[in-house]
Amino acid sequence: MQRYLLRRVLQSILAMLAISVIAFGLSHLSGSPVDAMLPMDAGPEEAARLTKLWGLDKPVYEQYFIFLGNALQGNLGDSIKWQGQTAMGLVLERLPATLQLGGFAILVSTIIAIPIGVLAAVYKDTPFDAFGKIIALLGQAMPNFWLGIVLIWIFAVTLQWLPTSGRGGLSHMILPAIAMGWFQVAALMRLTRSAMLEVLDSEYVKLARIKGVPEWRVVWVHALRNAAIIPLTYFGLIAGSIFTGSVVIETVFAWPGTGLLAIDAIRGRDFPVVQAVVLTFAGVFILVNLLVDTLYAYLDPRIRYK
Amino acid sequence: MMAQEAPIIEVRELETRIDTKMGPIKAVDGVSFSVRPGQTLGIVGESGSGKSITALSLLRLVPKPAAKITSGSIILDGEEILTASEARMREIRGGKISMILQDPQTSLNPVFTIGSQVIEAIATHVKASPLELLERAIEALKRVRVADPKRRVEDYPHQMSGGMKQRVVGAIALGSNPKVLIADEPTTALDVTIQAQYLKLLKDIQTETGLAIIFITHDFGVVARMCDQVAVMYAGRVVEQGPVRQIFSDPAHPYTKALLNSVPSVEEDVKRLYSIRGQPPAFWDMPAGCRFEPRCDKAMPKCKTEYPPIYESPDGDHHCASCWELESTEWTQSRY
Amino acid sequence: MTDISPRTSEHTFGQKMFDLSRSLRSLPIVPIFILVFLLILPAVTADLIAPHDPIRGRIPDRLAPPVFFGGSWEYPLGTDRLGRDVLSRIMHGAKVSLSVSIVGIIFGGVLGTVLGLVAGYFRGWADAIIMRLVDITMALPSILLALVLAVSVGPSFQTVIIVVTFVLWALYARQVRGEVLSIRERDFVARARVSGASHLRIIFRHILPNAANTIIVLATLQVGSVILLEAGLSFLGVGIPKPTPAWGLMVADGRQLIVSAWWIAFFPGLAITLTVLALNLLGDWMRDKLDPKMKDL
Fold this sequence. Notes:
By secondary structure, chain B is an alpha/beta fold. Helices cover about 30% and strands about 25% of the residues of chain B. Chain B is built from 12 helices and 13 strands.
């Protein structure tokens, strides 16, 4: 168990390093990184200051280590668009809003998807199963930005049940969470269903029935505890697509999180902020995956005792 | 032999159908047998002969919704279970009748400790405090000779050997002292030495408790060790049944003879492995007459068209068989 | 009671293609029909059958509603702010979606397959490096890469292809590697090795044809998600640049007008949904037919 976790932690650090290389490399993609990191109207002394700070007159590998050293201290430079603010500061300021919406979306989609998936497996080939399949097919085919716009059109503008955009109470989160989570519901549901079907067919479920265990316990305890391991391994991926989704959904619902920040930064060609967002997202994503693997090891004793 | 004691389980004309892509099939077709307390019935047949579905039918656990018990009667300890409510069935399962599955590697739930799995089997049928349940679980493990059960209750299945797991499965099955135990090829997945130990364990427990065992196997060697009675199944039907000695010394049905001939003989250097020519019939393409006719050396024209009735041996030992060959012998038609 | 014989025999590429064509012949008619009708036909023939110019509109006809909502047959799905016919733009948009996904899947598929073959066949350090790269790629949210690329080099068709390739290769590499690991243990590979066949020959003659099903199924399953990815990028303004009629761009265009002129955003989104739905159904069906092992994908 400890060795397994240690290995995962080391892998995570390695992945983070690799991503820092990519983020670093991207600043050189457009030609001079000085141009990428400076406002249009900046003078030569500004450029000289930046060149010195990032060691841009030194060899590339040295530049990378300077970048890495600065990044480790949370210093990714100053924002171009938002004068007087650091790139990292802007991201951290907006991060809670993204985590709140993303967390809510994951929570809601899990609460909806797991029971539907379980019941679709138990009532395989019945109308309920077909209903679940339709939900899943639609969820995997609808673009989330379009779903968001249609939801606003129907529930916020026409029916006026919920607010159109912005951050506020729970009511502000409902529409964006649905738009963000529907795809995850579909994916989670399908995974749960297929995992449950396999487990329900297993010998240990048969043995549980032979013991006289009530059917609800067979399904929700014996089978689900095993079946849950499989969707859980995809949870890291789901967390990732929630982040990806946040860029789109926050744009549609004007939710003041990091996703919206990223888009604004791009429109303002604010390279340091974009870099900060990329590194933060990747970091949170890797951290979530690490947590998921730990939880996975806990749920599956075969790994826990290795 | 306690021949006078009433059977603890009595199965009459059991019929179980399965819906397949090729149409509905009768996986179990008019099977009848009974077992007395302390006795062991062996159900022998090739894979696909319907023996496992027969076993699951006894627990009313045939795979839903494809399979369904369509007619017949199963009297367990004086109670008809085919008409019992589902709630009553749950009391019966693991209570009066229980089962050991074939593969110990897959029959224990990998995410629960073996202690909790044994406890669950007992707690489903007995109201008791958690401490009492734990004690009874340890007791049950001790009975199947799991060494150091107090420590092993904390273990997960993957920490145990196959033979040990199968003992735990035994403890689960025997946890609330059932009267009938179905053992579905419980030793095929085990090493030969472990097999012998396990069979002896089951025998010992049977002697202690007067348990009736229904032993499902394709191995006549195991039958010889374990069983008092034998029923030979072929394509969903019992083709021959009777006391184990009679079946071995004087098999009446050509299929039984062929099966016995295919048992490898240890004494001879060269294995005499008579394989029976051809394949068992597909269930959706059943011959109109005797099901063994296409593979039978002694088939007569009549065999092709009419299913043979059951004939009983004149020796009065309840040795029965379904074969037209017996029509012209001293065997008499029976309604078994 | 059903007889499932294990897949142990060697399949040559020719046989594979034969199997594929035979399976395709029994394709259910409905998804194929939807597919051809919704995607391929309008995409290929957009220049011929689209009733209006997708880029230059008629300003006097701007914001005309669809035919059953007070409009006319002149613009069956209405017009946008610049008086462009929504239907014509959707037809031309199909061309964009289709070409992005085909080109992207070819690039990502080839790259991922080659790396997966190398990793699975040679094992060792090549495997270790490639698989770490796969992990890293999967840890980097794809849209962010697109965002950065859009800032560095500007949004374009090429940018979208790079992003799609980047997202897909890791998936292919992982799947193909897994497949190769099991294929290389089979008898016919050992036989080929004993008979002195070169690595290249073993890979291309023996392993690749046997992994072909996985690759084809993965490609079919991915078309839909690639279309969604491209639409998302275009919607954010970091994908296909204006004024090309891409579906995502059209939804973005109509977003502010959803209350007064809902059709501008609604119909392109519906086109995406139905197309992806049809493609996913086709992908599922292909997987069931060709590679039942991949049930969970």
